[in-house]
Sequence to fold (345 residues):
Amino acid sequence: MSDLWPEEELKTAKDILDDALHEHDLSRICEAIKLMLPYCSSEIISCKSDIMLCILKDVLHASKLSQVCVLDEYESGTFRALIKDVLSVREFLMALATGDLSQSLTVKGYLAGALKSLQAHLKHLTWQTQMVAQGDFNQSVDFLGEFSDAFNSMIAQLEENRKRLQESEERYRHMSLMDPLTNLFNRRHLFDVLHQEVQKALQQQSFFSLIMLDVDHFKRINDKFGHAAGDYVLEELAKRLQSCLRPGDVAARYGGEEFLVVLPHTDLATAYSLAERIRLNFQHPPLVFSNFQFFVTASFGVSIYNTFGDSEKDISSLVDILCKQADEALYRAKAGGRNCVNVYP
Fold:
């Protein structure tokens, strides 16, 4: 049928096809083939391998695919299947490159298996990253070469930073509870403990006692030896106080030269005995400051929580009552000559 094709137009079509093949321009190739197909299939067949190569290169390398010319009459089924597989692999790779791990790949073989394995690793890595975000720093990666080393190093650094932060938080939390001079609990934490003990006693129908103590003639120490000596006295007495306590007892600086001790599950007789022990421990041995030796005493008031006959009062009111009772007993100890223990009522 080629004799029906004008020679000059055939030459022009061949030139277009040659240029298109050289430039891998599939659109122009398809256009030329459509014009030549009814008249010169032999010309198309002679350049079929070049067309196939052009199509394959376009599928592999082009950022955007051209319109692939499918010529069922001349293309082999094997080549068509190859292009289909390559297109599937290309689409799968592009999904991985953009972070889409939801795609599936039906192609089989070594390359497809490697890509599926990479996708599985990335999915697992995504899960591990989520675990790290939730605070699980036990994750490690061993399947992505240099990235594994970088990821594991990052996790180790995060874990170290977490531990440092925890230690810092614990240190500052502890500091917020403590009196900096005596290293006893401060007044704010003391009242938290008192509220907890009253709540516990109400729930369990139990009891606890309170010792309130005040250093005798503390102003004289400050006036005679200076405030540095006064601070030294408070520090030393706090140490002696702590040495007398049992596990579970809570001592706090109540204010100025006053201290308060909470004694869980302790009756008045036991609390009185403990207060006497602390009083004697304060007296002996004498304190020495800047070559000066002096004896320090304290007065003590003891009270006990026993629901006061009215469990309907709110906890804060019950705490106030207990502290006022201990303070009243302390006042009587002061009025009675100091350096003694008085029990409420």
